[in-house]
Specification:
Number of helices: 8
Radius of gyration: 18 Å
Largest sheet: 3 strands, antiparallel
Length: about 180
């Protein structure tokens, strides 16, 4: 099932297709330095994306293929948007239908970071945590899971956990582990 209609620009960016998101970016290609042989020094395969609306910048230069690096940079941009930009949560907020396979009864209790919906999922978890001023128990209650389940969802990804702890730090709360 597809995600619900986006409610703000951040969600539109996360749910848009690659071409639409890329259209919002300045794209720089350059020659990456480091190991990789002669081909690496002769082709401009590294990619830097500058997302104009958010100001976020990501790079990908691991591959000798510009096409592969562009795809990696787009995935990184989606995660950067999810990790850095918060959206308000309405008082009558309900989890989107597509989350039922990942949280709640009968779910796997996690989502792979390779899932195309993962950036939206990560953003939702952080939005809930920010909405409840870093209190994992209150954020978990909104999502309909236990505090331990909510914390486990955050802890599956180091960058996600780091941002969750930054939210908690701003509220003078101890970090999650």
């Amino acid at each position: 099932m597809m995600p619900a209609m986006p409610r703000n620009p951040r969600d539109e960016w996360l749910s848009s297709d690659d071409a639409t998101l890329l259209a919002l970016c300045e794209i720089d290609t350059y020659r990456a330095s480091g190991p990789g042989g002669q081909k690496r020094n002769k082709t401009s395969s590294a990619v830097r994306l500058r997302h104009g609306p958010s100001g976020l910048i990501v790079i990908a230069e691991e591959s000798r293929s510009q096409h592969e690096n562009k795809a990696k940079a787009l995935r990184r941009l989606r995660m950067a948007i999810a990790l850095q930009l918060r959206a308000p949560i309405a008082d009558d907020w309900q989890p989107p239908d597509w989350t039922s396979g990942y949280v709640g009864e009968g779910s796997a209790g996690r989502m792979s970071d390779r899932n195309p919906l993962y950036p939206q999922f990560a953003a939702m978890l952080l939005d809930l945590l920010a909405h409840r001023e870093g209190q994992a128990s209150k954020a978990a209650a909104i999502l309909g899971v236990t505090t331990a389940q909510f914390t486990k969802l955050l802890a599956t990804d180091g960058k996600l956990l780091a941002e969750a702890n930054a939210i908690r730090r701003r509220s003078n709360l101890s970090p999650l582990k």
